[in-house]
Amino acid sequence: VVTSGFDGLTNIWRPSEVGPGQDPVAEEAVAVLRDEEDPARQVPDLPPPAGGAAEFAAQSQCVCTAAVHPTGATLTTGCNDYLIRNWDVERQAVTQRLRGHTGWVWCLEAQRGQPAVLLSGATDGRVKQWDLRVGELRGLVADMAISTPTAQGPNQGAVSGISLRPDGNVLVAGCFDTRVSVIDLRTWRVSQALEGHGHRVTRVAATDDGIFSASFDSTVRHWSFE
Predict the structure, then answer these.
(1) Are the C-beta atoms of residues 128 and 165 closer than 8 Å to each other?
(2) Secondary structure of 150-216 in the HEC alphabet?
(3) Contact 33/72 with Cβ under 8 angstroms?
(4) What is the dihedral of CA 49, 77, 192, 111, to 10 degrees?
(5) I need a surface site. Which of 68, 109, 192, 226 has the fewest CB within 10 A?
(6) Which positions ≥6 away from 49 have C-beta within 8 Å?
């Protein structure tokens, strides 16, 4: 189990082994990750994407999201200093710092069947695809804007959630502008922009035949692929 937080820490937990009918318990983190060599830069020009985060933004590196790669040996985190960090889990050390976003990195997804490929979404309204086998400056292989800030505020265009369809050809992205975008990764074009939510979309999940999206409008919607 991996957890991350606005305290700048990413914790790795291993639940204890239990007998039949008992619930597993993780009493203590077996690893605590923090990048001490590259502390967070202050980002006063872009406020936090949700209430309650402002107190952390100026004083610490907030870890907004974490993703475990299919092999289990590598962990990736996205932070409020616009960086994506790859970690060697065993050594508890940063192996790469990926620079390219200009907003809080809010969501990450490892591409199924391609452990060296990573997808990211951020409050800059962009979705990026990275090749982790190459150096951090050459690692960006695709980039597109699916949303832009509006007059209502700089975070209205934030990409808040991404999810790959199991076949790996389609990425679904939810945005604070209330839309759900369907991206064909073979062409890197938005094939559909789904509208229906009345407030920020917070999370999305893609299945073989549909999409689930959750929103601050207190609803969960189910969409079917055409």
Answers:
(1) no
(2) ECCECCCCCEEEEEECCCCCEEEEEECCCCEEEEECCCCEEEEEECCCCCCEEEEEECCCEEEEEEC
(3) no
(4) -170
(5) 226
(6) 104, 106, 123, 155, 158, 160, 176
11-47 per-residue burial string, b: 16 or more CB within 10 A, e: under 16: bbbeeeeeeeeeeeeeeebebebbbeeeebeebeebe
∠ Cα 108 53 68 (to 5°) = 20
Structure tokens at 29: 């983190």
- Euclidean distance between CA atoms 49 and 176, whole angstroms: 9
Low-confidence ranges of the chain (pLDDT < 50): 40-59, 151
User: What are the pLDDT digits (tens) for 120-165?
Assistant: 999 999 999 998 888 665 667 778 888 765 545 556 679 999 999 9
Q: How far apart are the first and last CA of the chain?
A: 35
* 133's tokens: 């086998």
Supply 13's token pair.
Answer: 């937990």
**What is the tens place of the pLDDT at every residue in 71-91?**
788 899 999 989 999 999 888
Q: 158 near 49, Cβ under 8 Å?
A: yes
